[in-house]
Amino acid sequence: MISLQHLKKCSAITLLPQALQLNQKLDFCTDTRKYHHPSAFVAIPGAKVNPLDVITHLLDSKCPLVVFQDSEENQIKVKALEGIYPHTIFLSVADSVTFLQQLSHEHITEWKKSDPKHTVFAISGSNGKTTHKEMLSFILKTIRPNRIVATEKNNNNHLGVPLTLLQVNEQTEMVVLELGSNHPGEIKVLCDIAGPNAGLTTNIGATHLEFFGNEHNVFLEEGFLHQAVKDQTQGQGFYLINKDDHYLKELIPFHGAITYGESRDVSARVSFLENGATIEFKGHLIKATNDQITGRHNKLNLITCAFIATHFFPEQQEAILKAASEFRPTKNRSEWIDFEGRSVYLDAYNANPSSMKAALEGFKESVLEQGLDLDESCVVLGDMNELGDSTPRYHQEVGAYIQKLGFKHVYFVGRFSQHYLEGFPQGFGKESAASFKPEYRSEILKKYRIHFIKGSRSLQLESLFDIT
Q: Exposed, middle or buried, 45 (CB in 10 Å: 0-12/13-18/19+)?
């Protein structure tokens, strides 16, 4: 519930109606399909639809407040609606998104001030942001039900972050916030809105290079969270620095920061197990295991999230580790499925060079752990998007990496197949998932005992299994 008193501080408002009671508290909604009374509704202009044209059912249920973006067209629409729906107050703003950002900032700032333990834990990085968010929020919601707010799905942008923050209420103790960026400066915008007082940058890799140009610029963008937490907390905030990452190891620790990794010169040292990992910090050992995750990268994600949860709720370590063991991957993301008697590792959500290599390493590890030969495995790779001018080189590198790992039966799907084949000429190129599906389902699936499927979201590789 958001106090409307915060509206006074929103410069995006062009005129504050006298009838608006500022002592009210309301939920805010931007999707007419998810509206519930008595929430306020923020009309965000779409490319094709003006939301003011589709809010009749909201107004019929006596929606108390509609925020709309000021324009001549909208003023005419609102004037007509005001005559029909006198119970609704219409609030004009210069920009609907800016209004949401300002309102959420005021709300979360007051929430943090209300209790020094209130935490906005933000997650940035090239790979593993969503996995960390899903793991950490699962653990925290298990031990602190109804007291944790987390980013839903991948709503991690300039609109998703404010909407997440607006879900915070008096019961909330902690926010787990995923920060996404594909253009320089976007992480700073999100940090300015949310004011994170704790956080983690997972790693730095070749992501969105068509906009960032090189990995150093990715580091400057994703690593900005380090500075934001430091500034918000005068250097006292909890922030994890991954010393095993080529770029992140250069971040200078502040008082509240903790270095972690396999390196010897870290505060929290990570070691890997067959079904999980441990982390040793100040003579105390934390061990997290889970039989449903594959690869060192996911084991690292798991132990990191267990460590974070234990830092904030040390008295509940036993429950935290139990919750960590019960976590299950999100659908289509690093997920093991059984399909027609075959074991399939499916990640049809995202792909970039570093995540692809890490996932392939984890898959090989899993194949061997199951006592299988690599000759019994099949690898299907889709395009890696948003790599700019480096697209051919990175696909060729991943192709060569597959060769190095020892896989033999490999299929490449999408418009960059020829670049993969330059690195792994023994493979087979396929135009699309749709054209590949008949051959895959009738022949290839049955031929090999274990399968690896990974590619960027646009490839829709999950359609090979009739999954939507």
A: middle
